[in-house]
Task: inverse folding
């Protein structure tokens, strides 16, 4: 973890690293997040860890249970089914708008992500592919130029990006091909196709996420405090 600076506090750095570790699969959905353990992992005191957990809880990545334990949020099938239509609406609108008025800066950003993903696919690097997947969805919404769509989209993406297991264990070629087609439609200025492709892609994500949903972890007794 990089050293803190005047612009980036220690709590912010821990927040970024813990968020990346949750999204990257280091901590599985339902796993207990204990302050003392995390402070040892990130070599910091419990105070920045506590602040990081609060931020990530506000983003929906962390949940506090009835016993005051903090765990990595586990999305139920019902929650996935509620979030997917919201992402479908927001990203569909964003893809359409991006295709209609794509800036050169946004075009370059999307194409750069496609090239990075192609390299990861060739290297069979599922973890990088999952990172690029999230970045592409974020870049599409940014390319729309709508601050409102971006603000609505970010917490939805944060809550669901780690659940896309197909890029780690499934058919990466099919999943990645969908991303390439979405970016191509946007860059070609085909608004209707861009919207349809990204809506279909999110429908496929929901199906895959529900099929690969992990069973709930066995209940256990943790001798550390939930704080």
Result:
């Amino acid at each position: 973890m990089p050293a803190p600076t005047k612009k980036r506090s220690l709590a912010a750095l821990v927040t970024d690293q813990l968020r990346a570790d949750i999204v990257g699969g280091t901590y599985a959905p339902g796993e207990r997040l204990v302050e003392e353990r995390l402070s040892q992992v990130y070599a910091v005191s419990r105070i920045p860890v506590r602040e990081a957990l609060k931020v990530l809880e506000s983003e929906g990545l962390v949940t506090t249970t009835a016993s005051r334990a903090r765990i990595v949020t586990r999305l139920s099938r019902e929650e996935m089914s509620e979030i997917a239509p919201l992402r479908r609406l927001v990203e569909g609108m964003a893809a359409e708008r991006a295709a209609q008025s794509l800036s050169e800066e946004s075009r370059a950003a999307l194409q750069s992500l496609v090239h990075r993903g192609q390299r990861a696919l060739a290297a069979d690097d599922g973890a990088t592919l999952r990172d690029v997947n999230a970045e592409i969805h974020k870049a599409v919404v940014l390319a729309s130029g709508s601050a409102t769509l971006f603000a609505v989209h970010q917490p939805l993406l944060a809550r669901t990006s780690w659940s896309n297991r197909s890029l780690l264990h499934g058919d990466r070629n099919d999943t990645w091909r969908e991303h390439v087609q979405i970016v191509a439609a946007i860059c070609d200025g085909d608004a209707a196709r861009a919207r349809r492709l990204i809506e279909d892609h999110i429908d496929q994500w929901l199906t895959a996420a529900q099929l690969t949903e992990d069973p709930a972890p066995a209940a256990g007794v943790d001798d550390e405090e939930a704080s």
